[in-house]
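Chapter summary example.
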Amino acid sequence: MRIVISIDSLKGSLSSIEAANAIKKGILNVDNNAEIVIMPLADGGEGTVDALVEGMNGEEQLISVTGPIDEKVNAKYGILRDTNTAIIEMAQASGLPLVPQELRNPLNTTTYGVGEIIKEAIEKGCRNFIVGIGGSATNDGGVGMLQALGFEFYDENGNLLGLGGKVLNQIKSIKVDNRLKELDECNFKIACDVNNPLYGENGAAHIYGPQKGATKEIVEELDRGLINFAEVVKKDLGKDIANVAGVGAAGGLGFGFLAFLNSKLESGIKIILDEIKLEDVMKGADFVITGEGRLDNQTAMGKAPIGVAKLAKKYGAKVIAIAGCTTEDAVKCNEEGIDAYFSIVNSSMTIEEAMDKENATNNMISTTTQIFNLIKAVL
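The structure predicted for these 379 residues follows.
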């Protein structure tokens, strides 16, 4: 029996690899001869660095960078030496949790720290980048990131502009001569799972600004700023991309990547599945085990377990999902390639007890053991 395990992390409890190893133990309790392949899984968001570093023999790096409110924060990223690839979660440098509630205002927050991570990774030899851009505290169009990489933004009087979304309205010209030259050798895959344009009623400021602390007036100011930024980019760089799906992600960081760097905006799960070459190990699999912390109808709309399930079905494998919890509407997952799903919570317990690492590990092992007891009996 050949079994592939590729499960997303159970946020706040088990990492992708920890969950997979617990599942493996459960299987081996029933069939000690099973051929088991473990592959890391993430969707480009939180946990992507941990999953790929742990699952692909990468190296975790820690760097002190400029945080979203211009204070130093410690950020981690990963390097996969085999492919000179850096794995970056922008939220490590510019995420909303890094900003105290009372200081949340996207006029003031910056993506400068994201650029600092990229710069250090380039200095360490990386030329390929996977960047997850979820969870931002920013709405600066990626200007801060670009400033850290040597791009310069000037106002109408030729003054060099500072940081934050507030400068977007002041940008009148862009100078690229002093950018980091190694950027020309780099490729960026941007994990972007939203379709928002840069500005307008469905743009970065209107849709995501309020959750970052923007009032109605601030939203309008930021939206005007993004319009201005797009016009200057069109004038100075010849790029008219403000309406490309996804450029409004992370307060316009998607736009910054696409307009200034050699970047592609792609589905996060597609990027990860391609990177780990999951399709190659699916061939010949009898069962594929996937899952995540909470399995629900949002899972069915294209989250990581569904990406795994669709690949598995391409090669005729049976797909089982195991989750920390499941909801009634998780039945939608059955329509998207998951043959059956199970919650690992097997008795009454608090959320804290369920998420305790030792409890979650034991529950994962126990649930998997019972699933494969049934499979063994049927086969």
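To summarize the output: The first strand starts at residue 2 and ends at 5.
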